[in-house]
């Protein structure tokens, strides 16, 4: 299976039209655009199956649960908006989630929560709950725990084919790249080495740092375009074979 990989296209800042590329499937690992605009773009841009994991920016100026529902409602039949869900295509199993983080990666989750709440736009631009309250770090910890449990449960199940995990947030610090030091880094990556070791391929985004490497037998990839003018290592026609 030939998979075309993109993340962090940030179409809210600049359009992107993929070059003609032969592939069987497209993976969009989040931050394609805000709200359901990335879904509309995927509907029109691709005719093959698309697996789309939401990033944090999809939820900007919206409600974290209602936005996901609207994205699914807007999706064409070939575009799959997944969160804590699995999808089997051929002999390949895809486990998909936004992931978020639990803020423990920098060593002191309490301090990391305070720093991230103060400096990160997620906690100013995303709403949650019946009262449309501002998102809090503790809300994301709960979602991160749910995703970790989902992945651990699914990876423990016998599957004869290949397994590909797709998340927006980075699974381990080693592949996050530079610029994520200090407590703000705790909002970018997890400490999921045990899960990575159980997976054939892990595709992620969020860090704006392209990577293609092998960790504990798992091929770990990210192909982010990033913001206009940003140098991320983006490859417009990156296809991997699984």
From TrEMBL:
EC number: 3.1.4.53
Keyword Hydrolase: yes
KW Glycoprotein (keyword) present: no
Domain Calcineurin-like phosphoesterase: 1-209
EC class of the enzyme, as a word: hydrolase
Organism whose genome encodes this protein: Pseudomonas fluorescens
MF terms in GO: 3',5'-cyclic-AMP phosphodiesterase activity
InterPro entries: Calcineurin-like_PHP, Metallo-depent_PP-like
Pfam families linked: Metallophos (PF00149)
Keywords, in A-Z order: Hydrolase
Signal peptide: none
Listed Gene3D superfamilies: 3.60.21.10
Top-rank lineage group of the source organism: Bacteria
Designated name of the protein: 3',5'-cyclic adenosine monophosphate phosphodiesterase CpdA
